[in-house]
Each structure stands twice: as structure tokens, then as C-alpha cells.
Amino acid sequence: MTEINRPIVIGTRDSALALWQTHWVLEQLQARFPEQRFEIKAIKTKGDKILDVALAKIGDKGLFTKELEVAMLEGEVDMAVHSLKDLPTQLPEGLTVGAMCIREDYRDVLIGRTARTLAELKPGARVGTASLRRKSQIWKVRPDLELLDIRGNLQTRMRKMEEQDLDGIILAAAGVLRLGWADKITQYIDEDVCLPAVGQGSVGIEIRDGDEAIARVVGALNHKDTADCITAERALMRTLEGGCQVPIGALGKLGEDDSLTLHGVVASLDGREICRDQVTGHRSEAADLGHRLADILIAKGAAEILKAVRQESCN
Ligand SMILES: NCc1[nH]cc(CCC(=O)O)c1CC(=O)O
């Protein structure tokens, strides 16, 4: 079946991970629409060009998505493939999420050089990680570790680990597995220790709002279980952020009788305070669960953390 009488253009960043994910999307779409022609167009984004500044300092909101979004609004590409966790909760006017694809392993992993697990790292070991979310949660179990900012795409981070002689780095399992580096992983970090980023492990496809033909094609890749969980996670994030960057971890998990449990954590900017809780409800009220958990976290102490975050990073 040919859906559209021209090639559909799939937009992507040009990092190895983005290209892997985009080729995966292309294969999945081609299998469902064998007669339709698809093309890939790779675009360099600001996030790919700035490699040396700690992400927390420049703020990563939209850093990896903006150029692609402009290309979509100008009709140069028909969709943009992202790691869903890099896609802001508030999209520019005229754009929407067309699919949340089936989730890969959502956990963070340790790639250890001098030890295999967090517990086995020597006192004061130096470990690379790019996110406050990871730092604050890891400090909770290993306050002695020296957690260093390490930026760049996955290849760059692996190289920096060697160059800077770090004891290990923490990355998302999904990216490492997609690049075929499963054998480098020395520990899958349990979600009880470290909640992942909102949307971690899922590929999100952004499309033009109101482009019905593209929405039908892309919608074929939406994975309902993944989408319900991540809808709850994104609602939590959107409520807590109020438009600025906050270190948040979240994980939605489906249970019996269509229940959905949403776990969430908010961390202070110095990473030394965290606030964590969970709510359970019916999966059909995923967004509402996100709002409820936000209220609970705020009542538990997240309000103080958020106030400080807004003073420092939101303007
Ligand atoms: N922030 C960069 C980024 N965006 C998506 C992934 C991995 C894939 C995923 O989490 O879905 C990564 C690398 C990492 O955090 O280790």
C-alpha cells in the first residue's frame, strides 16, 4: 500500500546512535508499508556541535531537537526521530509526538574499568556521568565517589573515560546496546538505586501537528504499553519543570489489572538532596498519575528543591 505519492523524508541527527535509531525506524516503517518510499536526511544540531561545556551549564532543552524541528516546519523533512528522553515535554507550536516506540532496557549501566559494580569501586573512585539525575542518585548509595561531567556522544564519552583515566562511566543501557557494546557493560543499575530519565530507552517520532497522512504512517509504530508509561512520566516532568530544567528521574511500570505505577525522583542542583515517591492507578489515567505524583513530591520537599532550581537556572 502506498500511503503518500512521494518519498517520505525521515529527519535525524547525525550521531551514530541517532542514525542507528533512524535506520531502525525506517526498517519498521518499510515492513508495514512495503510500497511506500522512505528517505533519511541527517542534520547537525547545536547539541552535537557543543561538546566541551557541561550540559547542565548550557541547558539541554531542545538542544538536540531544534534544527530538526525547523526542518520539519519548513517541510524539508516529514518527521524527526529522537531519543524520547531528549524531546522536551513542551514542543514548539505546530509539532506533536506521532509515536512512542517500543522501549528498550530503560536502566542506566556502569561501564567499569577498575571494578564491575558501584559497590566494588574503590573509595573516592572517579566516575563520569553527564547528568545531575544520575549524580544525585548515585551519591545516595556512594557519597564518596567523585562524579565528573563527561559530555559528547557515546563514542566521545568512551574515549574520554580512557583519556582521563576514569574508573568508569554511567550511561543509558539503550544507547550502549544499540551501538552493539553490550559486552562493555559491567553492571545494570537497579531502578531502586537510580530511576532513569523520563522516556529513557524509547525512540520518539515527532511530526507536524495536523499532518494526517504522516500521522497515520508514523502511528503504526506507537507502542501502547510504552506510550502509557511514558505519558505518565512526561506529565510528571511537565508539571514539575514549569518551563525550566530540573533534575528528574521517573519510571512508569504496568502491573496487574491494567494498573500503572509511576515512580519519580527530584534532585537538588548540587545533587546532595533527593525526594522520591510513587503512585499507582489505572493506565487509562496516565497523565493524571503524573500530576498526582508531582503534588506528592512537592508536599514531600520537592518544593524547596524546585525553588532553588528556578532561582539558579530558570530565566
Ligand atoms: N543524553 C544523551 C542520550 N540520549 C539518549 C541516550 C541513550 C538512549 C536512550 O536513553 O533512549 C543518550 C546517551 C546516554 O544518556 O547515555
UniProtKB/TrEMBL annotation:
Cofactor-binding details, from the entry: Binds 1 dipyrromethane group covalently.
One biological process term in Gene Ontology: protoporphyrinogen IX biosynthetic process
Residue stretches making up the Porphobilinogen deaminase N-terminal domain: 8-215
Domain of life: Bacteria
Domain Porphobilinogen deaminase C-terminal stretches: 229-297
Needed cofactors: dipyrromethane
Keyword annotations from UniProtKB, A to Z: Porphyrin biosynthesis, Transferase
SUPFAM superfamilies: Periplasmic binding protein-like II, Porphobilinogen deaminase (hydroxymethylbilane synthase), C-terminal domain
Keyword Amino-acid biosynthesis tagged: no
Pfam families reported for this sequence: Porphobil_deam (PF01379), Porphobil_deamC (PF03900)
GO MF annotation terms: hydroxymethylbilane synthase activity
GO cellular component, one term: cytoplasm
Catalyzed chemical reaction(s): 4 porphobilinogen + H2O = hydroxymethylbilane + 4 NH4(+)
Quaternary structure and interacting proteins, as annotated: Monomer.
NCBIfam families reported in the protein's UniProt record: hemC
Note: The porphobilinogen subunits are added to the dipyrromethane group.
Protein name: Porphobilinogen deaminase
Source species of the chain: Heliophilum fasciatum
Source taxonomy: Bacteria, Bacillati, Bacillota, Clostridia, Eubacteriales
Gene name as annotated: hemC
